[in-house]
Write a structure and sequence with these properties.
There is one protein chain. By secondary structure, the protein is α/β, with parallel strands linked by helices. About 40% of the residues lie in helices and about 15% in strands. It is built from 14 helices and twelve strands. The strands form two sheets. The chain has a seven-stranded mixed sheet with strand order 1-7-6-5-4-2-3, sandwiched between helices. Helix 3 packs parallel to helix 10, helix 10 packs across helix 14 and helix 12 packs across helix 14. The longest helix has about 35 residues. It is globular, with a radius of gyration of 21 Å. The model has no long low-confidence stretch (mean pLDDT about 95).
């Protein structure tokens, strides 16, 4: 078995008869057959071959296999999708039906919260949110059974950490499958299936691309889940990944390990530096000992991650002033990019939350989410120091 860094470069490689060095991009919607009988056999499943790129595509397939190999034990299947949210939606909608019940951590990305809290209930699925940090809350919510558990860890944007092993054990005892959004940690830092999760979803738009170019998503699961729920759902609802975008993601995987290593070292050094600046109410970073769940984060993750939440004194007005004063950090709601990016969650990514909902997950008016990039960390430190002197 090859090591992860080798799989990131060579995993899933399927060269054409031209023996190209770089993986080929198969920009095709359909495929031709030598005879009508061959087409019939392909659609009946009597022979295995590509029939339509909404179902499968050679470039997409290479990306799926490479990501599957990186995810490790338990990831028998990977299916790429058009975006991270299409991956979340498919992972949940493919398995849930009227009368089912889902229990979710409360601290979620806004669009994920919308699916769990508003879309699923329209179809007769009962949804319950809990404090993801509180194991007693999970135990109480799962005491009457459930079909699915959904969570992010670390959460967006306040870096809450959920005990994956403990929650997975409770979920399985309640009859639920566990779906984990692993975007913030990436498969380089955290492998939820090794801690008990059943399904992992990604927005590959983020760290996998890593340069803000393309949208993409992925679902990793067992062969049984794919056969019983996912495959037909994806085929017939159509959230297919673009071959070109999948090629970009495939090339992004080659450097993912190197980039995440640099992101994390920069993030730890910057978070430590910002903690010492005046005008800061708190810095939330799992890699800091000041993080309330630092020990758990370091058990589940190889490093502290690439994102920092910074709460400044002075609320929204001061947060806006700091953002506007930054010179080496761009204001953007994306993350995982080579460039450092910052956003104000209360007015961007989580603006649809009510004031009470934001308060429940710690999103204050003074909170800034920072995705730490690959710049020289000294430039980033100098930038924050000058921005906080305004």
């Amino acid at each position: 078995m090859r090591r992860p860094q080798t799989e990131l470069v060579r995993g899933g490689l399927a060269r054409s008869p031209f023996d190209e060095t770089s993986e080929a991009i198969y920009l095709t919607s359909g495929y031709v057959y030598s005879s009508a009988a061959e087409a019939a056999a392909a659609f009946s499943g009597d022979i295995e071959r590509f029939v339509y790129s909404r179902y499968a595509n050679p470039t997409v397939g290479m990306f799926e296999e490479r990501l599957r190999l990186l995810e490790g034990a338990g990831a028998e299947v990977c299916r790429a999708t058009a975006s991270g949210m299409s991956a979340v939606n498919a992972a949940l909608m493919s398995q849930l039906k009227a009368g089912d019940r889902i229990v979710s951590s409360r601290a979620l990305f806004s669009s994920c919260q919308y699916i769990v809290g508003e879309i699923l209930p329209r179809f007769g699925v009962e949804s319950e949110f809990v404090d993801g940090k509180d194991l007693d809350a999970w135990e109480a919510a799962l005491s009457r059974g459930a079909n699915c558990v959904f969570l992010e860890t670390p959460s967006n944007p306040t870096m809450e950490v959920v005990d994956l092993r403990a929650v997975s054990e409770m979920a399985h005892a309640a009859g639920a499958l566990v779906v984990v959004d692993n975007v913030f940690a990436t498969p380089v830092l955290q492998r939820p299936m090794e801690l008990g999760a059943d399904i992992v979803v990604y927005s590959t738009t983020k760290h996998v691309d890593g340069q803000g170019r393309c949208l993409g998503g992925a679902i990793l699961c067992s062969q049984q889940f794919a056969d019983d729920h996912l495959t037909n759902f994806l085929r017939h609802t159509g959230p297919a990944a673009s071959p070109f975008n999948s090629w970009v993601m495939l090339k992004g995987l080659e450097t993912l390990d190197l980039r995440v290593e640099r992101h994390c070292s920069n993030a730890l050094e910057l978070a430590t530096f910002i903690e010492g600046l005046s005008g800061i109410r708190r810095v939330i970073y799992p890699g800091l000992e000041s993080h309330p769940q630092h020990a758990l984060a370091m058990q589940q993750m190889a490093k502290g991650g690439t994102l920092i939440a910074v709460e400044v004194d002075g609320g929204k007005e001061q947060a806006f002033a700091v953002l506007d004063a930054l010179r080496n950090v761009d204001i953007s709601n994306n993350l995982g990019d080579a460039k450092s990016l910052a956003t104000h969650p209360a007015t961007t990514t989580h603006q649809r939350f009510s004031e009470e909902e934001r308060a429940a997950v710690g999103i204050t008016d003074g909170l800034i989410r920072l995705s730490v990039g690959l710049e020289d960390v000294e430039d980033l430190k100098e930038d924050f120091a000058q921005a906080l002197r305004i």
